[in-house]
Every structure is written in C-alpha cells, then in structure tokens.
Amino acid sequence: MRSPPDIIRIALVQMQCEEDPALNLARAEKMITEASKRGAHLIVLPELFKTRYFCQWEDVRHFDLAEPIPGPTIERMQQLARQSNVVLVVPLFERRAAGLYHNSAAIIDANGALVGVYRKMHIPHDPLYYEKYYFTPGDSGFRAWPTQVGKIGVLICWDQWFPEAARLTALRGAEVLVYPTAIGWHPHEKSTWGDAQHKAWEMVQRAHAITNGIFVAAVNRVGHEGPADGGLDFWGASFVCDPFGRILAQASHDREEIVFAALDKSLIETVRRNWPFFRDRRTDAYQELTRRYIGDMP
Amino acid sequence: MRSPPDIIRIALVQMQCEEDPALNLARAEKMITEASKRGAHLIVLPELFKTRYFCQWEDVRHFDLAEPIPGPTIERMQQLARQSNVVLVVPLFERRAAGLYHNSAAIIDANGALVGVYRKMHIPHDPLYYEKYYFTPGDSGFRAWPTQVGKIGVLICWDQWFPEAARLTALRGAEVLVYPTAIGWHPHEKSTWGDAQHKAWEMVQRAHAITNGIFVAAVNRVGHEGPADGGLDFWGASFVCDPFGRILAQASHDREEIVFAALDKSLIETVRRNWPFFRDRRTDAYQELTRRYIGDMP
Fold it and tell me: With a cut of 0.90, is the ipTM above it?
C-alpha cells in the first residue's frame, strides 16, 4: 500500500463461531478476502474468533486451544495480509509460555509484517465469562501501532468499559480504536436487561470516540453458544462511529455480515479543534487515577 | 433531615437568566421553594444561575458580578436550605481574592451548613465561551461531599467532557454526580451540528454514569442570550440518569421547568456487582494519564 490514506476503508467481520477451529479460520479467511475485494484497507476480526467462547466453562483442556504468536494462525494471516494488501487485526488465545496465557490480538501490516501484539489488560470474570481462569492480565500496556493505513489502537472487549484504556490509547496517537469483542446476553436476562445492556455497551464506546476525538469500531460475534437452556446469545451489533460519536455503519444482532465504513481522518482535526479536550486536560490533577478507591479516605 | 435516605428525591432547576441578577436570584428561590414543596431533598441550580452567561464577552466590568463564598447570595441560600430542609448545590461566579476568580459551586447541607466549594477544574475558551479570561482553573480537586442525603459529587459544564473528572469523583464515593451547566448552540451552526452536539453531550454524561455505576444529573439553562443575529441558544434538556445510563427524567429544550427524579441508591450496588469495573481497573497501568500526550514518543 501507499502512505497512510486520508480515508481508511475499514471492514468489521461479524461472524458466528463453530466448534471446529479449522472451520472458523477458513470462514474468517473467506470473509477477509471478500472484504478486501470490496475495497477494505483495514479488516478486524472478533475476539477469539478461532474458537467457541470457551470461557463459559472452566476446563483445563481448553488451554490446548492456545497458540503462540507468531504461530500457525498468525503466520497464515500474515500471508493473507500480504496477498490481499490489507492491514489485519487478528485476535487469538495466546500461549506465551507454559502456564502463561493471554487474550491477545496481533496487528499485521499490509506487507505481512507482525507490527505488534496487544494483550487484553482488563480481564472479566462473571457468570459464563470466566476469563480470569484462562488469561493473565496483559502487560502490553495501552498502545497505538503504526501501519500503512495509519495509527491503530487495539483494545479487547471488557477494556471497552474503562475510559482510562481509551484515553491512553488516544494519547498514544491512535486515529482509530478497534475493539474485538465477544459479548452476549444471558437468555434468561434478555427481556429484562437486554436492551439496556446493549445500549450501555454502545453508548460507552461512542463516548470514547467523543471524549478522545477518534474513530471507534467494535467487532462482535453472533449466535447462541452453550446449552439450549442457558449459554450466551452473542448480540452482534458491530459498529463504527466517528469522532463525534455518530454511527457510520452497524450490523444486525443475529446475522453474519461484514460492516464497511470509510473513515475520513480530517474529521479528527476538525472535531478536536472545535472541542479541544486535549488542550484542557488537568494533567496536574489526575494522579489519583492510579488509586483503587479514595472514598474511604478522611 | 434524617440519615441518608435510600431514595434521593432530586430536583433540577432549569431556568432562563435575565440581565438583572436580583431577578434571577428571586426566581431561583421561588423554584427551590416549589421543588421543596413537591418533595425534593436535593436541588441543583444551573451554572452561573445569577447572571447572564457573560463569558460571551471579555469585559473587565463583568468582574463586578463576582461574590465571595460565603457572601450575600450563599448566605441567603444557606437560610433557604435550612428553612426548606433541603440540600442545595448553588453555582456562583466567585471572587476569591483581588484578581482571583473562579467558576464555583457551593454545596449547602439541609441544616444550612456550607459543606464545601467546588471550583471548576476544566476551563473552556472557545467562540462565545471565553472563560479562560474570567476563571482561574480550580484547585479544589475532584471531591464528593457528605450531606444529609448522601455523598454528592459536583462538577461544572466543561468538566462533563473529561472522564478523568467523573472517575475521580466516583472514586471519592459520590453516589450522585451533578453537573451545573450553561451550554448552547451557536444559532448559525444549529441546523448542521446542533443535533449531534446535543446527543454527544448527553451520551458522554450517560457513559460516566455507566462506567462509574453512579447517578448523573445535568442542569442547564434555557433561552437565547446575546445579539439577535448571534449569541447562544442555551439548549436546556436537563436530565437525570441511573447507574445503567437510563434516563429517568428529562426537560425540554426551550422551557423553564423543574426536573424531578427519585434515585434509588440500592441500584448502585446492583449495577456495580453485575458490572464490577472498580474490581478490574488496572491501577498499575494508568500512570501516563498525567501526561499531556505520548503519541510523539518513540
């Protein structure tokens, strides 16, 4: 590719994940190839796209699903990135060492180079999201990686809820912040809380776009996984929004699809000039953000 | 009043501000009395409620509008709080010393005690919002004040856009975070940007409620101020939302009115148990939030 284009054509691969990792990989490759043919420069897969969301169960055998980075999957994706001339964000269950596993994402440039690895910093652990059993919290910090389409920030799922993560990624110079995700409803809660949960998820990420003056994209999976009388209904609804928080494109709640959007980077400059939050941050008064709680101080 | 009630009955006084400060004060007192009679425990006035939004002009004579805290207005409000048995948040253009002025808010308990003064930390300075001329950035830090209805966090207007401010206030134990505000449209921009501006403003504050698991309330003024062919159209739309970001009550864009809502504090516990962001914050990885920018680092 050329120097960073003024317009990034992004594609989000909203997919359903099968039991067999080989099928998921093949499907992801097919969808990446399609997105590339339809003009995408930057293509993002959902969190842990190669497997079922195995964190519904705490089972030591699931560690067999992990792979090193680089490793077979990432090397194959590097080849695909080079062939298709696209930047890829590829989430993976990473085996970093014996007994040391991460929920990670590889950032692969359009020439096939592995630019970096983001390791999920905030790890959830709640009913059917038993991630603290599998994943060591990342030590990658919050970063933005230079690629042929521009500086890309990557955070993963639970990170979505932490404004600190979005802010630090933006301060690193990210122009677009992508969130590979696996979030769904508990079927028994869906009628009572489902709408509010989805709305809150979307709203918080759009707020990150606004408060930081950057593009934000979330890529979720779809479909039911787990027992018929329980499990999780992944809610899809992958979307892209601009630095004003306006949604540019959005997927359904229940279908596999590719979400396309054109990100005009000049909007970052325009929005930040008119709402210059970076000018006015009180960097002298934020030290206590590194504290756990201060409400119990005298 | 008694010990902090499980339900806080809040009232937001959305008002129009006249040229004459005495009229604004009288109107605020009348609306506070009405809100109290209708059952409010906590009543919040809009930013700089006693004056026109004079920051549209840089004029040295406007410093005459400032008052000390405590001073005539705050003492009168302390009396009213005691008489009506309500907690009040009273914004004021504060003269702290010769040549030292703040955009402040007094927190007055239901027994009339002056519990604290918040001094706006983030100061804007953009077309028709020339606040850096008048107001020294606050040195109060981000606080939550104990009152007879519970712990109240106070931030002012431009602070709304900074997740750091909301987070630090929540970490101090705030149960409800109130934002006295004076925000409006530039009439010439209204048709192009107006809807997106209002939506972004609302969304960012609802996101603070979600990411911190607290109630949030914004109190704006209404009406046009300034020359007929320019000036600002203050957009009202004062609202209260719950820790899930759901709007409980919301005012019109163009009328004086009092917004009432009942805040059930038990929802804070429920929401935070289900989305335990405070459990998972990476306090070890947030140091660089005190930096201005790090995107130019190697």
Answer: yes
